[in-house]
Amino acid sequence: MSNMNHTIGWIGAGRMGYPMAERLAKAGCDIRVWNRTRAKAEPLSENGAKIVDGVGELGDVEILFTMVSTGKDLKQVLFGEGGAATGAGGAKPKIVVDCSSVGSDESEEVRGQLDGLGVGYIASPVSGNGKAVKAGVLSTVTSGPKDAFETVQPYLETIAPRGVAYVGEGELARFCKIAHNVMLGVVIQNLSEITVLAEKAGVPRHAFLNFINDSVMGSPFTRYKSNALANLDWTTTFTPPLLLKDMDLGLAEARALGVPMPVAAATRQAVQHHAGRVAKIDPANLERDFGMLIETVADGAGITLEPENVPIPTGLEPKD
Length: 320
Prior knowledge:
The chain is an alpha/beta fold. It has helices at residues 17-26, 38-41, 71-79, 104-116, 130-135, 146-159, 172-200, 205-214, 220-231, 240-257, 262-281, 293-300, and strands at 7-11, 30-34, 50-51, 63-66, 95-98, 120-123, 126-127, 139-142, 163-166.
């Protein structure tokens, strides 16, 4: 395994990118950071990061990490005017590691362009949110050239200490992330259903969720969602439209590969029903957290949920 002595570039200091870059800075990495809004990245300098004014200033790093919103953004920061992969004097990073959630087709296009430039490319989408990063429980799935992966592995393990899974070449990591998000939809829908079932029978939501979390069926996901479900806190981590997009991608792959997925298909319809219902009430609800599905389940059961005001530990309390 390589030592952590490479020059690092980082693009994107948003809700996820900031705490991920912060973990590398706190680990003592030689890291330069660019963000579209510089002020959002500037506090990273307190941990030793250097904040730069343009992505072109990252062209000479050895490893460049990207955490951006869309595939279009990824192509822009790498190949657009003054992009990091086409920097001044022909400078370009040796390896690009993209941690964003972009489509496999866009990622494949980026890989082809980077291959043409002699730049290694690792796809490394993550599982978790900003709180998971800070708590040290983020995980990631990776694919790309094995030698490039071995170089970046210690940095990924710093960012995602819960687990770094290497699954092979090409865009297999993107495929795994889509499968992951299909399961995310199925689990949140079923968790909502059984929680409403228990409440209608007379069990307080927080009590039922604590039981689930302490049982063999509990997981980091059920634990960190329990506070939201008990107290109806829909602070956004992931939205219903994004969930629908990923479920559609997963079901399309299932059709192409001839894999029956009746539970996922039924869940997709439930999420669509939720999206239609909450948009009719207030379109802004579509930008609220997907945990709000539980309110649609409760509506179908003929009950109205109220916040229980019982804080439940999420397991995502910040750790140094």
